[in-house]
């Protein structure tokens, strides 16, 4: 994994990769807000949103075989959505011999489609933005330096924790552990506890190392340390096109509702 990369980053040289990170973050926020604000009872706006996302994927050269497996992160929310038609009250409707709640069906549809579009848009930004671009982008958007530092460190140490968890799992297997066996749940729980303690101790060591290098509790302005140039007006206009289209679709949906 190269410098500035993270598990969701896809190395390429597309126009989306070259777009300023701060503009992509704002575009993502506006796009998601437009999707969330769209009435769930209308279907055509979500089809248009999907077309916009797929078009950006084509520009970013992100193939579906790379994108779809990484979108499984939303699986827990989909499970919740499946349960809603059975748990909600109110008017019922028969579907395949089952009595389902009408309001639950609408709620499930809203969670599935809006959540999927939100995850797809966020994954697009993550796949085209490296961690080295985040500090400057967040600082330029007015995010406090402390919050920016915490976010960057979190992304950095998530990789370390995942690698250490993999080594601990391999060590258990080499000593006869069977991760899929139910009776090994206790050993897995103890491993999670040990990983937490190691992470806490690593955090203390990192903090002591920062103090020994002159850290006084004030976070420097990360936007001025090797930062790329600020986004030009033309870049803002171009990169924000998907968000502007999404806002137009959401507004049209409310007018026609």
From TrEMBL:
Q: What is this protein called?
A: Cobalt ABC transporter permease
Look up the domain of life of the source: Bacteria
The record's annotation in CDD domains points to: EcfT (cd16914)
Its taxonomic path starts at: Bacteria, Bacillati, Actinomycetota, Actinomycetes, Mycobacteriales
Topology in the lipid bilayer is annotated as: Multi-pass membrane protein
- Species assigned in the record: Mycolicibacterium phlei DSM 43239 = CCUG 21000
Cellular-component GO terms for this entry: ATP-binding cassette (ABC) transporter complex
**What are the recorded Gene Ontology BP terms?**
cobalt ion transport
Q: What is its main location?
A: membrane
């Amino acid at each position: 994994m190269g410098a500035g990369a993270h598990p969701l980053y896809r190395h390429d040289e597309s126009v989306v990769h070259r777009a300023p990170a701060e503009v992509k973050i704002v575009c993502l926020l506006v796009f998601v807000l437009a999707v969330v604000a769209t009435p769930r009872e209308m279907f055509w706006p979500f089809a248009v949103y999907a077309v916009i996302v797929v078009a950006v994927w084509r520009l970013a050269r992100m193939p579906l075989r790379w994108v779809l497996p990484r979108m499984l992160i939303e699986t827990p929310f989909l499970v919740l959505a499946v349960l809603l038609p059975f748990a909600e009250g109110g008017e019922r409707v028969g579907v395949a011999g089952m009595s389902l709640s009408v309001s639950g069906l609408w709620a499930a549809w809203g969670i599935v489609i809006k959540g999927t579009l939100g995850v797809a848009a966020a994954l697009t930004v993550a796949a085209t933005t490296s961690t080295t671009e985040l500090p400057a982008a967040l600082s330029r958007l007015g995010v406090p330096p402390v919050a920016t530092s915490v976010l960057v460190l979190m992304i950095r140490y998530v990789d370390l924790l995942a690698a250490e968890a993999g080594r601990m799992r391999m060590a258990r297997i080499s000593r006869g552990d069977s991760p899929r066996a139910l009776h090994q749940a206790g050993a897995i729980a103890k491993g999670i506890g040990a990983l937490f303690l190691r992470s806490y101790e690593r955090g203390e060591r990192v903090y002591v190392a920062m103090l020994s290098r002159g850290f006084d509790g004030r976070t420097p302005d990360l936007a001025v340390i090797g930062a790329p140039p600020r986004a030009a007006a033309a870049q803002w206009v171009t990169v924000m096109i998907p968000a502007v289209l999404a806002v137009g679709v959401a507004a049209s949906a409310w007018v026609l509702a």
